[in-house]
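Marked as duplicate of an earlier ticket. Keeping the data here for the record.
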Amino acid sequence: MIDISSKGGEHSRGFQLESMTGIDLVTAAQLVAEIGDIYLFATPDKLARFAGIAPVIVGSGNKVRNYKSKQGNRVLHDIIKSLAIRQLLVTRSTKVPRNPYFHWYYEQKLAAGKTKQQAIVCIMRKLVNVIFYLMKTKKAYVIPEVSISEAG
Protein backbone atom coordinates (compact mmCIF):
# COMPACT_ATOMS: atom_id res chain seq x y z
CA MET A 1 0.00 0.00 0.00
CA ILE A 2 1.38 3.41 -0.96
CA ASP A 3 1.19 5.93 1.86
CA ILE A 4 2.51 9.26 0.67
CA SER A 5 1.37 12.51 2.21
CA SER A 6 0.08 15.13 -0.20
CA LYS A 7 2.07 18.35 -0.48
CA GLY A 8 -0.94 20.43 0.54
CA GLY A 9 -1.91 17.97 3.24
CA GLU A 10 -5.61 18.12 2.35
CA HIS A 11 -5.77 14.52 1.11
CA SER A 12 -3.68 11.77 2.67
CA ARG A 13 -2.85 9.05 0.17
CA GLY A 14 -3.48 5.46 1.13
CA PHE A 15 -4.05 3.91 -2.29
CA GLN A 16 -4.29 0.14 -2.66
CA LEU A 17 -3.35 0.00 -6.35
CA GLU A 18 -1.11 -3.04 -5.80
CA SER A 19 -4.21 -5.11 -5.01
CA MET A 20 -4.83 -5.31 -8.77
CA THR A 21 -3.09 -7.99 -10.83
CA GLY A 22 -0.20 -6.57 -12.84
CA ILE A 23 0.43 -3.57 -10.58
CA ASP A 24 3.50 -3.78 -8.38
CA LEU A 25 4.89 -1.11 -6.07
CA VAL A 26 6.89 0.58 -8.86
CA THR A 27 3.91 0.73 -11.26
CA ALA A 28 1.66 2.05 -8.48
CA ALA A 29 4.21 4.76 -7.67
CA GLN A 30 4.46 5.69 -11.37
CA LEU A 31 0.67 5.96 -11.64
CA VAL A 32 0.45 8.15 -8.54
CA ALA A 33 3.33 10.34 -9.76
CA GLU A 34 1.90 10.84 -13.26
CA ILE A 35 -1.73 11.32 -12.22
CA GLY A 36 -0.95 13.54 -9.27
CA ASP A 37 -3.99 14.66 -7.28
CA ILE A 38 -6.88 12.43 -8.36
CA TYR A 39 -9.33 14.98 -6.97
CA LEU A 40 -8.47 17.31 -9.87
CA PHE A 41 -10.39 14.92 -12.15
CA ALA A 42 -14.18 15.01 -11.75
CA THR A 43 -14.82 11.87 -13.81
CA PRO A 44 -12.88 8.91 -15.24
CA ASP A 45 -13.54 10.42 -18.68
CA LYS A 46 -11.43 13.44 -17.79
CA LEU A 47 -8.64 11.20 -16.54
CA ALA A 48 -8.82 9.23 -19.82
CA ARG A 49 -8.52 12.45 -21.81
CA PHE A 50 -5.55 13.50 -19.64
CA ALA A 51 -3.89 10.14 -20.38
CA GLY A 52 -4.57 10.48 -24.12
CA ILE A 53 -6.79 7.39 -24.22
CA ALA A 54 -10.09 9.08 -25.12
CA PRO A 55 -10.70 9.44 -28.86
CA VAL A 56 -10.63 12.81 -30.61
CA ILE A 57 -13.95 13.47 -32.36
CA VAL A 58 -13.61 15.30 -35.67
CA GLY A 59 -16.58 16.14 -37.79
CA SER A 60 -18.21 18.53 -40.19
CA GLY A 61 -21.85 18.49 -41.15
CA ASN A 62 -23.20 15.00 -40.64
CA LYS A 63 -19.83 13.29 -41.01
CA VAL A 64 -18.18 12.42 -37.71
CA ARG A 65 -15.01 10.36 -37.21
CA ASN A 66 -13.10 9.27 -34.15
CA TYR A 67 -9.33 9.42 -34.26
CA LYS A 68 -6.71 8.11 -31.88
CA SER A 69 -5.49 10.93 -29.65
CA LYS A 70 -1.85 11.92 -29.89
CA GLN A 71 -2.28 14.39 -27.05
CA GLY A 72 -2.24 13.82 -23.32
CA ASN A 73 0.35 12.53 -20.91
CA ARG A 74 2.26 9.98 -23.00
CA VAL A 75 4.12 8.53 -20.01
CA LEU A 76 0.80 7.77 -18.29
CA HIS A 77 -0.55 6.41 -21.59
CA ASP A 78 2.39 4.00 -21.87
CA ILE A 79 2.02 2.86 -18.23
CA ILE A 80 -1.67 2.08 -18.76
CA LYS A 81 -0.96 0.35 -22.08
CA SER A 82 1.64 -1.95 -20.53
CA LEU A 83 -0.78 -2.61 -17.66
CA ALA A 84 -3.51 -3.54 -20.17
CA ILE A 85 -1.19 -6.02 -21.86
CA ARG A 86 -0.27 -7.50 -18.46
CA GLN A 87 -3.96 -8.08 -17.75
CA LEU A 88 -4.15 -10.36 -20.82
CA LEU A 89 -1.21 -12.59 -19.90
CA VAL A 90 -1.88 -16.29 -19.54
CA THR A 91 0.21 -18.63 -17.39
CA ARG A 92 2.37 -20.99 -19.45
CA SER A 93 1.66 -24.21 -17.61
CA THR A 94 -2.06 -24.02 -16.82
CA LYS A 95 -3.16 -21.58 -19.54
CA VAL A 96 -5.21 -19.67 -16.96
CA PRO A 97 -5.49 -15.88 -17.55
CA ARG A 98 -4.09 -13.58 -14.86
CA ASN A 99 -7.29 -11.56 -14.87
CA PRO A 100 -10.18 -13.65 -16.26
CA TYR A 101 -12.49 -10.63 -16.49
CA PHE A 102 -10.20 -8.58 -18.75
CA HIS A 103 -9.34 -11.67 -20.82
CA TRP A 104 -13.06 -12.32 -21.33
CA TYR A 105 -13.64 -8.62 -22.18
CA TYR A 106 -10.79 -8.74 -24.72
CA GLU A 107 -12.28 -11.85 -26.37
CA GLN A 108 -15.68 -10.11 -26.50
CA LYS A 109 -14.17 -7.10 -28.30
CA LEU A 110 -12.38 -9.36 -30.81
CA ALA A 111 -15.64 -11.23 -31.43
CA ALA A 112 -17.38 -7.88 -32.01
CA GLY A 113 -15.00 -7.17 -34.91
CA LYS A 114 -12.39 -4.97 -33.24
CA THR A 115 -8.75 -5.40 -34.15
CA LYS A 116 -6.33 -6.55 -31.43
CA GLN A 117 -5.02 -3.00 -31.05
CA GLN A 118 -8.54 -1.56 -30.75
CA ALA A 119 -9.43 -4.20 -28.15
CA ILE A 120 -6.35 -3.24 -26.11
CA VAL A 121 -7.45 0.41 -26.22
CA CYS A 122 -10.87 -0.69 -24.91
CA ILE A 123 -9.12 -2.46 -22.02
CA MET A 124 -7.02 0.65 -21.39
CA ARG A 125 -10.21 2.70 -21.12
CA LYS A 126 -11.69 0.21 -18.63
CA LEU A 127 -8.44 0.29 -16.64
CA VAL A 128 -8.71 4.08 -16.36
CA ASN A 129 -12.14 3.58 -14.76
CA VAL A 130 -10.70 1.03 -12.32
CA ILE A 131 -7.66 3.17 -11.44
CA PHE A 132 -9.89 6.23 -10.97
CA TYR A 133 -12.18 4.24 -8.64
CA LEU A 134 -9.27 2.75 -6.66
CA MET A 135 -7.65 6.15 -6.17
CA LYS A 136 -10.88 7.98 -5.28
CA THR A 137 -12.21 5.39 -2.82
CA LYS A 138 -8.84 4.02 -1.60
CA LYS A 139 -10.32 0.52 -1.68
CA ALA A 140 -8.70 -2.73 -2.78
CA TYR A 141 -9.34 -4.20 -6.25
CA VAL A 142 -11.57 -7.26 -6.50
CA ILE A 143 -11.60 -9.18 -9.80
CA PRO A 144 -15.17 -9.29 -11.16
CA GLU A 145 -16.60 -12.81 -11.43
CA VAL A 146 -16.76 -14.38 -14.89
CA SER A 147 -18.52 -17.71 -15.25
CA ILE A 148 -16.68 -20.68 -16.77
CA SER A 149 -18.96 -20.65 -19.83
CA GLU A 150 -18.25 -16.95 -20.48
CA ALA A 151 -14.48 -17.34 -19.97
CA GLY A 152 -14.34 -19.91 -22.73
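See parent ticket for discussion. DSSP finds six helices and two strands in the chain.
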